[in-house]
Structure formats: structure tokens, C-alpha cells
Design goal:
Layout (H helix, E strand, L loop, with lengths): L3 H10 L6 H5 L9 E4 L11 E4 L9 H10 L4 H13 L3 H12 L8 H21 L13 H22 L4 H13 L3 H15 L3 H13 L3 H14 L5 H14 L3 H14 L4 H13 L8 H18 L4 H13 L1 E3 L5 E3 L3 E6 L10 E4 L3 E4 L7 E3 L2 E10 L4 E4 L1 E4 L1 H13 L4 H17 L3 H14 L4 H13 L3 H14 L4 H13 L6 H13 L4 H11 L6 H17 L6 H13 L3 H16 L25 E11 L8 E6 L17 E4 L6 E14 L5 E13 L9 H4 L7 E9 L6 H16 L3 H14 L4 H13 L3 H14 L4 H13 L3 H13 L3 H16 L8 H18 L4 H13 L3 H15 L4 H13 L3 H17 L9 H24 L9 H18 L5 H19 L10 H26 L9 H103 L6 H17 L7 H6 L1 H25 L11 H5 L4 H12 L10 H11 L1
Antiparallel strand pairs: 1-2, 3-11, 4-5, 4-10, 5-9, 6-7, 6-11, 8-9, 12-13, 12-17, 13-16, 14-15, 14-17, 15-16
Length: 1315
């Protein structure tokens, strides 16, 4: 921004190029007076003049001063001084008029410098007027001529700059003026050129510095602008004025330097207390820095608002100030000075002490917290000086009087916003004014005007996000969801973290029904991530998730999370949230949790005890069921009942304590009331059956008078408390109990509780609690007779219970309450359809079709199409009805291509025409779109597959249909679930029957599965007969026919080379014998009793003849099969005996083998024991040899006759040979020994000879006369066979080397052996 007043003052002065000394020694230059030389007076002499002082200027009209200057032929410098005098007094408009008049005389009086000065100043003055929004002439601008006025001012300024340039091309203020002109029309580059040129040519000129700073601000180069403003203030601390400080403060604010900005605005306000921009800047920054928890918050807020109000007084046409004030009054509550308000507890009526002017739907506040609206249809009633009006909400607190009434002064907001709009030509400020107006209309629910003003604001300022968000809200209200979503995306383009916009856009994306909803939930998730503790955003996500049934569990989880957040913040959970949780639990079959949530919702609506209290004298006691305990209470009757001491086990008759002449009719209860005898949960619940006053004789013959109550149940006598001796004498012989009677409370009086009560009744229906559901629906209708939904539910309950008369009565009542209601008429039409009353049903749906309601219209056409399709049996109208049915289905699809029900109907028409391929494609598409939510599609596909002889696929479709309708409670088209099941079971049976007949066509072994399929057919027919609630002759005939075909199949197995059993033939015979009398009975009904049976007589007679023939054939086949089975049984017995004999032989052989193995094992163990004994003997021998070695070794060392260690080696060799013979394992491998005995014997002899030869060599080598005599195996172990000896010798040769001794002696022995 350019400080226009400072630039204009500098331009008028003309000192655009000060010296350095002037800059350093600048002092405030204020024109003390205006001196006009007198030249026109005849008597005037030299030195005469007219002097006008500044304080006199307000008394002098600008036109008078212009006339004086013109009459006296004043020089241009005097004209400029006059204009400067006005500018210094903040009267730029008058100064501009002086300069305009001077421009008309500039060629007549003045030199070149003065002419350029006046023309440039006049041009800058025009730009100043254009910026302020004034006319080129007198008067204020209107909203339609602002842009034209600006163009006029700019054109006038451009003309004067051109004239000034012709006078003096190098005059600095002309260049500054041209820069300002280009800056005002957005030509930033040209403006920068003029300002930079001025600074280069003339140095630091204040107007050029300020203009260049404005260019930098427009380029968003705030730091550069800050530096330029700082230079201007440094070099021109006085001339720069308050406006420069304001620019400096704005640059600081843009850079985030809030404290410096606040200081700059404060300094500007100190320099010029009437500077509006400085006052607004100080106020806004002060408001922004306030802490709501501070004790001085209110005082500081009032101080800031007062500052803005002062700015408005200084410049009442400043649009920025007016917008700020409008925003302040939009949020401010203004007290109504006339009188005070009195309110009553649990009432929505308020009374004032003096007449008040209140409009319907006007927003008001009573006291400091209670906010509400005046009722829409309520006109305040002023009588006796008081005003009574009705509020939308009920006063929940105690009754009070003397309360102040507050309301929003929207009229002032509108006036200020309109004034701001008409006071400026800046589109951004005008957009803010329109936004203020739109908000007022929005809060008043005038959505049409709100949308219009929001739209205009967005067109003027596309980046004004609040206005665009408001526009999106109004578009959502008008159900223009696509446009609203587009505007919300634009909001997020400028404010990516706007959580409200993210949440709203996410909801719209979900509502749009796109297949891929990830983007929608991404918006919601981002909003929650930005404000994770905001329960409203979590609730919005839950609301989005509950749009589709598959997301119900996730929606329930989000609702629980929101409830936890609200409870953690000590915020009451709204009853709407609890109700939604209950509905979701209801839909997800969590019935107990749903019940608890509905009860919590009802308690949340109480807000005290107003709606839960019950009156003893209440006559509305229709809600009494124990499952509806939220709508009744037990009320103390203040009556005591006396237990009879004679009946310790209890009695159903109790006496009322009191006088015997009590009036029975005056008692606060009556027969049929539900009561509680006793205090608290220990009391006994029962029902009063009789109230009478009589004299009765008790057991001992005495008479007792009084009022007695007879209850439905026996009232047990409570145990008497133990008493002390002091109190025993005064204790009564009877026990007393208080009587409490059940009375309905006032919960249903609250309109908000009706929806919760209705949902609770629906929950009772789903849970099978029909009695409390009906009771609650009826209670709702007694309190609110126009609640149509309860009529409809009562009609549905009566229909489901088989009471069509009651259903009709409830529907008639609904039609009386809501004539023409689409839901009522739809249910009436469906009732006629279920009764096959086609003509009344067609009339009802024609009436619905005439209403042109979108959803109802489609349903009506669908029902009419179904009516025509179900009436195809009329031969003469077959083609006509089929054509009408197809036409209705096509009309629906032309308007809604995604209507799966219409597509399903069209598929049935195609199937009826025989176009099975097209019909199948249609049904497949319906399944794909609906996700099997239309069970009839499965049934129709089964029929198609059956017609195409694709029996497995048909059976799968039929069974899927039954699973769908039985497990999920999906709607069916028959009168009852059992009838529908019977029909589908018959379809399945026929599919098996047709499949079996098709299989029999092979007439060979491949026809074997036919028998099993006939059996499946018979079983499904039997199931259908059980499901059918009435006698069905056709079903019985089908059962007999299936039995006959199954018997034929069994009898023909032999010709088809298929095995069969006598039992199969016997079962076939039994089936034939069972079916024959059934068919004969049907023939009797048809021919003798003349009953209406749809089966032809010749078919029945043919069946009987075939059945009789098959019975005879089956009997012969059975005898043959029995004979074959007897022969086969005898053969199997012989085979069994032979097999048993062979088995016994194998067992004997195995037993003998086990005995042999046991004997061999015993022999091995015996031999092992003998060898162990030999080992023990050998150990003893070793010990003796070791002792002998020790003595021999000592002698040899002394004599030195032989090398040490030789004797030990020889002895050890002998020991090894002996040891090897001990552990010979030849006896463990007898089988190998038997097979290779001769080979082993030869090998062992050869090895024994080699061993003997080696021993001889050793003897020769070590023959010293001291060698021990050779010990043979015979000496050690006794005699043994040659085979064993050979084996032992072999084992000696194979003994491993590692058993040889180690150490120094062993080394010596190895050396000798090598030699």
C-alpha cells in the first residue's frame, strides 16, 4: 500500500529532492496560514492580502475559497498552499477540489515548475479519491457505480500526469504519480520502473520509497518492503507519518513478527490518533493475543472493540472497520432493555415484565447460559403489559424470575455489512461484507439468500475459504452434493488442514455411493489425525461408516470411541449418539447391548427427574410390562397391608390396615393394577385380582372386618425379626408391609423420546418379545396419535401373527391419520398382494404411482409389474399381461439402471418367453450388483439351470436360496416361511427327479446313480409334506410317482448290468405298496366324493395299473434276489471256514517258530555264561603271570641277559590269543555257519598254520630258556570242536593293534620286530 496522504502532501509541497542536511535536520513543516494577495480591489494597494488561518478553514466552504483565489488571480503556488492546508487537516477531498480548479488555470498563471507541481498533485489527488471510493463529483458511490467511478478517477489522473509530463518531463512527482497509477491497476512491473527511476534520479524520495515498498508488498516480498518502510521512517521520521508505520506493521505481521507489528501500529496511533488503519491493527492484534482464561479478558476485549468503534466514528465509511464491527456484533449478545424474563421448570413458556418485540425463530438467550429460539409458529402475546412467548426448548433448571433477555442484533450486522460493501471498490473487502450478510441469512435458516450471498462472495474473492465453506454447507442443505463437494475441494486447496471441510467432503464422498470409498475415508482419517481428541470428527466417521451394512461393526467401534472421548472431557453424551449405537447393535444382532444403549439414551433425555416421575392418580397406566421398565415406576400408596399370622406359608389375600369402613372406590388403585408388596428389591410383585370389604371368620371362628385385597400370586409371609424381652410384650401378632402400585412415568411426553421408544419396541419384536412391543407401540400412539410408524408396525405384527383383520384395522387407522401417506399405502398394497387380491392391490399402487414420489414411484411400478406377471394364467390375456409386466420393468430401468429388483423382474419375463440365455445373463448381473441380497434371483437362476438340464447348478441355487431366507431373515414372496420352504423343497425334489430320469437314459451301468437321486427326491418331498401346513394332494401324488419311478429303476438294474440287493428290491416293493393305496384314495376323492383335484383321472388310473404290475414284478424279483443272496451267503460261509483253517495253521507255525527262537536264545545265554566263567578263570591266571613277570623282570635287569620288554610282549600275545577266543561270536550266527561251514573251516586252518609258524619264529628269536610254556585253549577251556577252534584262531589274527601296550617298553619291542 502507498501512504496516500503523505505522498499527496509531498506532491503539493513539491520538495521531492531534499538535500542530506534537510533529511538530517527535518522538522515538522506545517502551514500556519494561507496568504492570498489582493489584486482585484480598486482601492487596494501593495501589501494587502487575505489571510486564512487553519482553525478558520472549517468555516470556509471550498467553493468560496476557490472563488476568492480565482477573483484575486492568485498564483499557482497559492492554490497549492490552499490545497496543502486542506490535506494537513485530513480533508483530502476538499484539497482535491482546489487542485482541480487550479488545473483549469495552470496555463494562465504560473511558471513551469508551479504548473508541473499542480498537475502532478492533482493527478495524485485523483488516485487518492479513487482509492477512497468517492465520486468524481459530489455524493457517495453506490454498489453499481463503484468500478465506473474508479475508472473515471484513474482516467482523470492519467490525463493530468500526461499534461504534467508535457510541462516538465523530469519532474519527480509526475513519475511517482505514474507509478501509483500503474500500481492501482495491477501493473506491477511498470510501477516498479517508475519508482526505481525516481529513486535513481532523485535519491531517497519519500513518495518513491513508499511506492516501492507498496510494490514489494504486492510482490509478496515482505522483507524487502519492511526494509524500504524502515528507510522511509529513518530518513523522514516526521514526514513519513503514521501511514508509513502502518505499512511497516503490516510487513512485520506478514513476516510473523507480531510484537513489532503491534508496536508499529501503536506508534502510528500515537502519531495520528485518528489513523483508522492503526486503530484497527492495534485492536485486532490485541484481540488475538488475549487469553480467555485471564481475569482481564473481558476488559481487554471491550477495550479493543471500543478502539474499532472509535475508528468507525472517525471514518464511518471505512469498509474494513465496518466489516470488523459487523463480525463483532454477529457474535455479541445484546441485552433487551425492556423488562425481565420469568421461566418455569419443565416449561417452554417464558413471560416478560414488559412488552417485547420478538420475531418467530429469533435466536435468544435467557440468563447467561440458556440459548434457544422463539418457536417458529409462535407470535408473542402481549397482555396486561406482559409478553408471553413459546421457546423451542424446555427450561430444565428451577423456576426463576428477573432474568435478562439477550438476543443477536443481526439488523446492525446487516447495516454494517451493506455499508462496508458500498464504501469500497476492493473486491476482497466487498467479499468479506457479502460473507457477513450470508452468515446472517444462514443462521436464520434462510438458505436461499445465504447461498446467493456466499456465491457472490466467492466470485469476488475465490480464496475466501470461509465463504466457500458456507456455500458448500448451503448446497448440502439444498441436496446439491456434487457442487458442494467441488467447493469443499477448493477450500482444501487453500486450507489443506481445514478439518471441517475434510470431514464434510468425506461424508459427501461416502454418500455419493462410489465403489471405491478409500478416498472418502482418507479425508475423514486426515481430519481425525489433525484433531484426534475431537469427538465430533469421530462421530462423523461413524456416520459415514454406517451408510453400508458391511461397515456396521466399524461404525459401532467409532461410536464407542467417540463416547469415550466425550466422557473423558466430562461432556454429556447426546441421546442421538446413544440411539445410533443402539440401532447398530440392533442391526448386528447384539440385542442385549442395544437394549442397554436405548435405556441410556432415555436416561440422557431426562436431565433430572422431570420425565421419570410418576403420579399416583395417573390414569394412563397402559405400560406395565416388565420389559418396558423404563416407562413406569412403583409409587407408594401410603397404605399398609397386614399379613395373616395364621398362615405362615403365605396367603394370596391381605388386609388393608385402617378403618373397616374405608371406601373401596376411594383407594388409589384398582383391580388389574400391578403392585409391589414390600420395600425395595425384596418386595413381592403381583397383580390385584379383587378388592372387597367383608367380614370373614378366621380359623378359630372369630369374625374380622376390613378391606381385603386378593392377589394373583401367593404372598409369602416374611420372617419375623428377633426381638428383645423388653419389646416382646409390645410386639404385634401381625406383620405389616407397604403397598406400591405401578404407574406410567412421563418419559413419552418428551417428543425426542418417541424415536427411542419406537426403536426399543422394534428391538422387542426382533427378540421375540411381542407383548411388550405391542404395549409400547400402543403407548406411543396414545401420547402421539399421529405417529404413523407405530400404526404400521402394529399392522405388521398382526399380519405376522395371522390376524389379518387386526392388520386391516390398524392400516385403516393409519390411513385416517395420514391420508395419502406413501408408506401406509404401500403396506396396504402389500397386504392385498399377500392375499392375492390383485384388483385392490393394483388400485392402491396406481394411486401411489400418481403421487410421483421418486422412490415410491419405482416401487409402485415394480409392484404393478409383479401383479401382471402373476396373472399370466389367463389364456386370453397372456401376451397382454406379459407385455405390461415387461413395460413396467423397463420403465424402472430407464430411470434407474441400478435397480436390481426391476432387472430381476425383466429376467423372469425373458425366461417366460423362452430366452433362457438372456434371462440367465440378466440374473447373473443382478447377483453381481446386489450381492445376493435378492433371494428370488437365486430361485430364478435355479429354474434356468433346471431348464438347461444343469441339475447340480440348479440344486446349488435352490439350496443357497433356502440358506439365505432361513439364516438371514431375508424377505420372501410367499404367505409364510413354511409355505415358501415347502415350495422350494418341491423344486429341489423335482430337480433330483429330473436328474435321475436323465441318468436312466444311458440304460447301462452309467445309470447307477439314478437310484440314489430318486431317494433324494423322495426325502425332499417328505420334507415338503412336513412343512406344508395343509393337505396337499399334489405333493402326495408326486411322492407316489417318485416311489414308482424309484421302484422301476431298481427292477431294471439287472438289464443295465448294475448290482442290486434284496433290500433294495424289498424297499422298492414297500414303496409301491405304500403308494398304491394313496393313489387309490385320491381316485376315490375325485370320482366318488367329487372333490376338486387337479390331477387327471386317466393319469391316476395309469399309475394304479403300473403300480400293481410293478408290485408283482417286484415280488418275483425279490424272491430271486433272496435265493441269490442265500446261495451267496452259503458260499461266503464256506470261504470263511477255509480262511479260518488257514489262519489257524499260520498261527501254529508262528508259535513253533517262536519256540525255536526261544530255545536258541537260551543256548546262547548258556554259552555266554560259560565264557564268562572262563574269563574269570583267565583273570586269575593273568594275576599270577603278572606276579611272575614282576619277579622275572627284576632278575633280568640285574643280569642284563635279555632286552627289556621282550618277555612281556610274548606273554601279552598269548594273553591276547586267549582273550580273542573268549569273545568269539561264531555261535551267534548259526545260519551263516551252516551255509559256509566248509569254506570257513579251510580259511581258519590256513590262518591257524600261519599263526603257528609266526609263534615258532618268535620262539626262535627269543629263545633264552626263560620263556613261559605255551598255554593252549584246550588247557584253558577244555576240549572244543574243530570249528570253534578254527574260529578262535581266526579271531586272534583279526584283533586290532590298538590293544597292544604303549610306552617305552612297547617301543623297544616294535624295534625288535622291525629288525
Amino acid at each position: 500500500m502507498v501512504a496516500a496522504d503523505a505522498v499527496m502532501a509531498e506532491a503539493i509541497r513539491g520538495d521531492a529532492s531534499p538535500t542530506l542536511e534537510e533529511e538530517e535536520e527535518e522538522e515538522e513543516e506545517t502551514l500556519k496560514s494561507l496568504v492570498i494577495p489582493v489584486t482585484s480591489s480598486a482601492s487596494g494597494g501593495a501589501g494587502q492580502f487575505i489571510e486564512v488561518f487553519p482553525e478558520e478553514l472549517p468555516e470556509v466552504a471550498p467553493s468560496v475559497l476557490v472563488q476568492i483565489l480565482a477573483d484575486e488571480d492568485a498564483p499557482l503556488s497559492t492554490w497549492a498552499d490552499a490545497a496543502l492546508l486542506y490535506v494537513q487537516q485530513k480533508r483530502e477531498r476538499e484539497g482535491s477540489e482546489i487542485l482541480t480548479s487550479a488545473c483549469e488555470r495552470e496555463e494562465q498563471c504560473g511558471n513551469r515548475d508551479h504548473r508541473a507541481r499542480v498537475l502532478a498533485s492533482a493527478g495524485i489527488a485523483c488516485l487518492t479519491q479513487a482509492a477512497s471510493g468517492n465520486h468524481a463529483g459530489d455524493g457517495e458511490p453506490s454498489s453499481t457505480s463503484n468500478s465506473n467511478n474508479m475508472e473515471e478517477w484513474r482516467a482523470m489522473a492519467d490525463t493530468r500526469f500526461m499534461r504534467a509530463g508535457k510541462v516538465d518531463q523530469l519532474f519527480p512527482m509526475t513519475w511517482v504519480g505514474k507509478g501509483m497509477l500503474n500500481l492501482s491497476i495491477g501493473r506491477i512491473d511498470q510501477a516498479r520502473f517508475f519508482f526505481e527511476t525516481t529513486l535513481k534520479q532523485c535519491g531517497r524520495v519519500l513518495p518513491a520509497l513508499l511506492g516501492m515498498a507498496a510494490v514489494r508488498m504486492a510482490e509478496l516480498k515482505f522483507q524487502a518492503a519492511l526494509d524500504l518502510y524502515a528507510q522511509a521512517m529513518t530518513h523522514f521520521p516526521v514526514k513519513s507519518g503514521a501511514a508509513t508505520r502502518v505499512g511497516f506493521g503490516l510487513a512485520c505481521y506478514k513476516l510473523g513478527q507480531v510484537d513489532r507489528a503491534k508496536a508499529a501500529f501503536t506508534r502510528a496511533h500515537e502519531m495520528d490518533p485518528e489513523n483508522v488503519e492503526a486503530m484497527v491493527g492495534c485492536a485486532i492484534l490485541e484481540l488475538k493475543s488475549l487469553d480467555a482464561s485471564s481475569p482481564s479478558f473481558r476488559q481487554q476485549t471491550e477495550k479493543a472493540i471500543k478502539l474499532i468503534s472509535m475508528a468507525n466514528l472517525v471514518h464511518h465509511s471505512n469498509a474494513m472497520v465496518q466489516n470488523h464491527l459487523a463480525n463483532h456484533y454477529f457474535w455479541k449478545w445484546t441485552s433487551v432493555p425492556a423488562g425481565t424474563i420469568s421461566v418455569t421448570k419443565d416449561s417452554n413458556i417464558a413471560t416478560s415484565t414488559k412488552p417485547m418485540s420478538l420475531d418467530p425463530s429469533e435466536r435468544i438467550r435467557i440468563g447467561h447460559e440458556f440459548e434457544t429460539h422463539v418457536a417458529d409458529d409462535d407470535e408473542p402475546d402481549s397482555t396486561d403489559g406482559n409478553t408471553t412467548f413459546q421457546m423451542k426448548d424446555t427450561w430444565k433448571g428451577p423456576s426463576e424470575s428477573g432474568l435478562k433477555l439477550w438476543k443477536k442484533d443481526y439488523d446492525r450486522v446487516v447495516a454494517l455489512a451493506k455499508g462496508a460493501y458500498n464504501s469500497t471498490t476492493v473486491q476482497e473487502i466487498q467479499a468479506e461484507s457479502l460473507f457477513m450478510l450470508a452468515r446472517v441469512f444462514h443462521v436464520k435458516d434462510d438458505m436461499e439468500n445465504a447461498c446467493k450471498f456466499y456465491d457472490r462472495a466467492c466470485k469476488l474473492a475465490p480464496d475466501l475459504s470461509p465463504a466457500r465453506f458456507g456455500l458448500a454447507q448451503t448446497l448440502i442443505w439444498e441436496e446439491h452434493y456434487d457442487e458442494a463437494a467441488a467447493h469443499l475441494r477448493l477450500v482444501l486447496g487453500t486450507c489443506a488442514n481445514a478439518t471441517d471441510a475434510l470431514a464434510a467432503l468425506g461424508l459427501l464422498e461416502v454418500k455419493a455411493g462410489k465403489a471405491d470409498r478409500r478416498e472418502a475415508f482418507a479425508y475423514l482419517k486426515k481430519a481425525i489425525d489433525l484433531e484426534p481428541l475431537n469427538p465430533d470428527l469421530v462421530l462423523l466417521e461413524a456416520l459415514a461408516l454406517q451408510q453400508q451394512e458391511i461397515d456396521y461393526p466399524q461404525a459401532l467401534d467409532r461410536y464407542h470411541k467417540a463416547v469415550r472421548l466425550l466422557e473423558s472431557q466430562d461432556t454429556p453424551v447426546p441421546f442421538e449418539v446413544l440411539t445410533n449405537i443402539g440401532v447398530l447393535c440392533h442391526e448386528t444382532k447384539r440385542l442385549d447391548e442395544a437394549l442397554q444403549m436405548y435405556k441410556r439414551a432415555l436416561r440422557a433425555l431426562d436431565d433430572g427427574t422431570a420425565h421419570i416421575s410418576s403420579l399416583l392418580d395417573s390414569t394412563d397406566n397402559h405400560v406395565r410390562h416388565k420389559d418396558n421398565d423404563m416407562f413406569w415406576n412403583f409409587v407408594d400408596t401410603n397404605i399398609q397391608l397386614e399379613y395373616s399370622p395364621k398362615k405362615e406359608d403365605g396367603d394370596s389375600r391381605l388386609k388393608v390396615v385402617g378403618d373397616s369402613d374405608v371406601d373401596v372406590s376411594a383407594l388409589p388403585f384398582k383391580v388389574g393394577d400391578h403392585v409391589r408388596i414390600g420395600e425395595g428389591p425384596d418386595g413381592v410383585l403381583s397383580e390385584i385380582l379383587e378388592i372387597h370389604s367383608t367380614s370373614e371368620a378366621d380359623a378359630d371362628g372369630d369374625e374380622e372386618e376390613g378391606v381385603f385385597l386378593r392377589f394373583k400370586d401367593t404372598i409369602a409371609t416374611p420372617e419375623r425379626k428377633e426381638e428383645t424381652d423388653d419389646n416382646a410384650s409390645s410386639s404385634s401378632s401381625t406383620l405389616l408391609a407397604s403397598l406400591f402400585v405401578k404407574r406410567s412415568n412421563k418419559r413419552l411426553d418428551n417428543p425426542s423420546a418417541i424415536s427411542v421408544a419406537f426403536n426399543l419396541a422394534r428391538l422387542h419384536e426382533v427378540a421375540g418379545r411381542i407383548v411388550p412391543a405391542v404395549e409400547l407401540h400402543k403407548a406411543i400412539l396414545r401420547r402421539h396419535p399421529s405417529y404413523v410408524n407405530s400404526y404400521l408396525r402394529l399392522a405388521c405384527i398382526a399380519r405376522d401373527c395371522g390376524s389379518l383383520k387386526d392388520c386391516s384395522e390398524w392400516l385403516k387407522s393409519a390411513c385416517i391419520v395420514a391420508p395419502g401417506n406413501a408408506e401406509v399405502l404401500t403396506l396396504v398394497g402389500n397386504l392385498h398382494l399377500s392375499l392375492c387380491d390383485w384388483a385392490p392391490a393394483q388400485s392402491v399402487f396406481d394411486q401411489l404411482l400418481a403421487q410421483k414420489v421418486p422412490n415410491v414411484e419405482a416401487y409402485s411400478m415394480l409392484s404393478l409389474g409383479n401383479i401382471y406377471f402373476n396373472n399370466l394364467k389367463t389364456p386370453t390375456k397372456y401376451s397382454k399381461h406379459l407385455h405390461h409386466a415387461a413395460d413396467y420393468y423397463k420403465r424402472i430401468l430407464s430411470k434407474d439402471k441400478a435397480n436390481a429388483y426391476a432387472a430381476n423382474g425383466l429376467g423372469t419375463v425373458l425366461a417366460e418367453k423362452g430366452e433362457l440365455a438372456k434371462a440367465k445373463a440378466c440374473f447373473d448381473r443382478v447377483r453381481e450388483v446386489s450381492g445376493d441380497t435378492i433371494p428370488d434371483t437365486l430361485l430364478n437362476l435355479g429354474h434356468i439351470y433346471l431348464a438347461q438340464k444343469k441339475h447340480p447348478e440348479a440344486l446349488q441355487m435352490y439350496q443357497s436360496y433356502m440358506g439365505r431366507t432361513q439364516n438371514t431373515g431375508a424377505p420372501i414372496t410367499s404367505k409364510s416361511q413354511d409355505d415358501d420352504d415347502a415350495q422350494v423343497l418341491l423344486y429341489i425334489a423335482f430337480a433330483y427327479f429330473d436328474w435321475a430320469r436323465q441318468t436312466e437314459l444311458f440304460n447301462d451301468a452309467r445309470a447307477a446313480p439314478a437310484d440314489g437321486r430318486y431317494k433324494m427326491c423322495i426325502s425332499y418331498i417328505e420334507k415338503a409334506m412336513k412343512k406344508s401346513r395343509k393337505e396337499n394332494v399334489t405333493l402326495r401324488y408326486n411322492w407316489c410317482m417318485a416311489k414308482l419311478q424309484a421302484a422301476n429303476c431298481v427292477l431294471q438294474k439287472l438289464t443295465r448290468n448294475i448290482r442290486r440287493t434284496a433290500k433294495e428290491v424289498q424297499d422298492a416293493l414297500i414303496g409301491l405298496e405304500e403308494s398304491l393305496p394313496v393313489v387309490q384314495t385320491i381316485i376315490k376323492w375325485k370320482t366318488v366324493e367329487l372333490k376338486k383335484i387337479d390331477i387327471r383321472t386317466n393319469m391316476l388310473n395309469d399309475f394304479v395299473s403300473h403300480c400293481q404290475a410293478n408290485i408283482e414284478s417286484a415280488r418275483s424279483h425279490l424272491s430271486e434276489e433272496l435265493k441269490k443272496e442265500a446261495e451267496a451267503k452259503e458260499l461266503r460261509e464256506l470261504q470263511r471256514l477255509e480262511a479260518e483253517t488257514q489262519q489257524k495253521e499260520r498261527e501254529m507255525e508262528a508259535l513253533m517258530q517262536k519256540e525255536r527262537e526261544a530255545k536258541e536264545l537260551e543256548d546262547r545265554e548258556k554259552k555266554a555264561k560259560q565264557k564268562m566263567d572262563k574269563v574269570s578263570a583267565l583273570n586269575d591266571t593273568w594275576k599270577q603271570q603278572a606276579a611272575a613277570k614282576a619277579s622275572t623282570k627284576g632278575d633280568r635287569k640285574a643280569d642284563g641277559d635279555a632286552p627289556p620288554g621282550v618277555l612281556e610282549e610274548e606273554d601279552e600275545g598269548n594273553v591276547d590269543n586267549a582273550t580273542a577266543a573268549l569273545f568269539d561270536d561264531d555261535s551267534d550266527s548259526d545260519d551263516d555257519g551252516k551255509l559256509l561251514a566248509s569254506e570257513r573251516r579251510e580259511k581258519k586252518k590256513a590262518e591257524a598254520n600261519e599263526a603257528a609258524k609266526k609263534d615258532d619264529d618268535d620262539d626262535v628269536l627269543f629263545d633264552d630258556g626263560d620263556a613261559q610254556p605255551e598255554t593252549t585253549e584246550k588247557d584253558l577251556f577244555g576240549e572244543s570242536s574243530d570249528e570253534e577252534s578254527d574260529e578262535e584262531l581266526t579271531r586272534v589274527e583279526k584283533r586290532p593293534i590298538e590293544d597292544s601296550p604303549s610306552g617305552p617298553d612297547a617301543k623297544k619291542r616294535r624295534v625288535v620286530e622291525e629288525e
